[in-house]
Amino acid sequence: MQNQSAPAMPGVVTAARIILFVVCGLSGVLLVMSLLGIVGAFLHSDGPDAVFATVGATTAGILRSFVLGLVVIVLLLVAALRIGRGGTRNHLVVRLLVGGGGLVAVLNTVLSGEGTAFMGFVLPLIVLMLIQTKRSREWFAAMDESARNS
């Protein structure tokens, strides 16, 4: 058998992967800032309920939003990491992870009333469109062939 090198990742797949990493990074920064606010509220002398009430939120709502945001980051980060492997199975897994991340982000937006729909929904939708192009599908399939031939 010939030892063939893996096909080069097309630009659309690279762009999708970069978008996912950027979204995860920015969301991670926002999540850390949120965590600092939550810790500050719990350390406040009036207690977290009084602090969150000043902005029209509840402690449970803030914590739920934090957990859902963490879930979105994990789903999108795993998707970004799996894109690099290629293969039709990973293509399916990436689509499911990105779609799930987008849906959880929409759920978080609806439950928390925050306007995070751009990063949480639009960018994963763009990623789904990028990895569904003809070149992307061909690359994922070619990665299966490359793995079989190695």
TrEMBL record:
Transmembrane spans: 18-42, 62-80, 92-111, 117-133
Keyword Transmembrane attached: yes
Keyword annotations of the record: Membrane, Transmembrane, Transmembrane helix
Protein name as it appears in the record: Putative membrane protein
